[in-house]
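Narrative of accomplishments. A recurring question from our advisory board has been how the design workflow behaves on a single, concrete structure rather than in aggregate. To address it, we present the structure tokens for one chain from the evaluation set, followed by the sequence designed for it. No filtering or post-editing was applied between the two.
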């Protein structure tokens, strides 16, 4: 059972969207309850509508996968795309897709008002699907592709796909004595046009030039960025000409095989690129590099981390701002309840200026999803 809450990020008011008098919000008769399980987080489609991707898989077939050494027997999936009004009411099924496993991660779902573009898989093959918002009809945009791939983001009307032509190392290699075994071949970042389905290569990486297990490329706010960690350079690539434009050569450098170094970009805040795990920020326009001013760390079950950005709302960010110990009760497979000591996340708003200047002036709004 899912119970929807609507939280007003201005006032922090947390409402259950139900107008039934003295309702306990625990059965199907409550308009805020969905028994369509599993239904995941609603995502904003437009001013009036939310979308929910709900995927059922048949785990009874896991045994069948084990007994099929070539992997030809795959789990069966059933996906639904649900729409509802912004107050979580008027829920309806846009389309029902048998045999398709749609990914419900917000980074794998895009819309242009006419269509929903979702990544997903069918018979273990990764695809990008275009789903009509008017009649629910579905088109597989990557049907003719044979390579293994996944979507990194979008640039204009193009999806950025990573396509791979790889030879994997012997899985029995001893990491302790031989070091990390390396994957060889090429990885290419390819643009797939959403309208014409034409493709063109944006940038290719070969195992002769870099460690393919440690590619430092990101798509943030419609822009593609690539890092050469050995040279300490950050560049963008022009999607029309394929030309690389250097932003800076002043990044901290790292060895090509250093698995602890990570250059993924988390966000572009007022023109400043923030990395998940680098002590600097970079101005995307001017190339200026500054030390990052950290906020006080969040401690989750003993691990420290910088507040993570969940949403950008004009000049403010929704981040995890606090954790509090609590005891969670779950139900085991045999039906018996069991408890876990963990920590509850709380979400708060912070201005982009305060975030960039390390000033922890949060307005706490609600509990987080974990
Ligand atoms: Zn209710």
């Amino acid at each position: 059972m899912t119970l929807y809450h609507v939280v007003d990020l201005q006032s922090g008011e947390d409402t259950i969207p139900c107008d039934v008098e003295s309702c306990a919000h625990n059965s199907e008769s409550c308009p805020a309850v969905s028994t369509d399980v599993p239904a995941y987080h609603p995502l904003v489609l437009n001013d009036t509508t939310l979308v929910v991707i709900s995927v059922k898989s048949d785990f009874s077939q896991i045994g069948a996968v084990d007994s099929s050494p070539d992997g030809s027997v795959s789990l069966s999936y059933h996906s639904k795309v649900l729409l509802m009004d912004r107050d979580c009411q008027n829920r309806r099924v846009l389309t029902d897709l048998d045999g398709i496993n749609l990914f419900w991660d917000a980074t794998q779902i895009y819309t242009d008002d006419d269509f929903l573009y979702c990544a997903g898989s069918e018979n273990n093959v990764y695809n990008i699907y275009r789903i009509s918002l008017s009649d629910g009809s579905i088109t597989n945009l990557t049907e003719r592709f044979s390579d293994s791939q996944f979507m990194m983001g979008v640039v204009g009307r193009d999806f950025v796909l990573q396509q791979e032509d790889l030879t994997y190392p012997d899985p029995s290699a001893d990491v302790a004595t031989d070091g990390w075994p390396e994957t060889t071949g090429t990885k290419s970042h390819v643009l797939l046009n959403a309208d014409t389905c034409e493709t063109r290569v944006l940038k290719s990486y070969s195992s002769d030039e870099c460690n393919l297990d440690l590619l430092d490329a990101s798509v943030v706010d419609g822009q593609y960025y690539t890092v050469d960690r050995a040279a300490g350079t950050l560049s963008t690539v022009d999607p029309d000409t394929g030309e690389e434009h250097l932003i800076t050569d002043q990044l901290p450098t790292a060895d090509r095989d250093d698995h602890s170094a990570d250059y993924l970009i988390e966000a572009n805040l007022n023109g400043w690129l923030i990395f998940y795990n680098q002590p600097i920020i970079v101005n995307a326009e001017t190339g200026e590099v500054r030390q990052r001013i950290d906020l006080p760390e969040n401690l989750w079950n003993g691990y420290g981390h910088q507040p993570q950005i969940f949403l950008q709302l004009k000049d403010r960010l929704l981040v995890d701002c606090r954790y509090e110990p609590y005891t969670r009760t779950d139900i085991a497979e045999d039906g018996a309840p069991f408890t876990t000591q963990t920590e509850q996340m709380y979400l708060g708003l912070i201005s982009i200026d305060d975030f960039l200047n390390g000033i922890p002036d949060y307005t706490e709004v609600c509990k987080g999803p974990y």
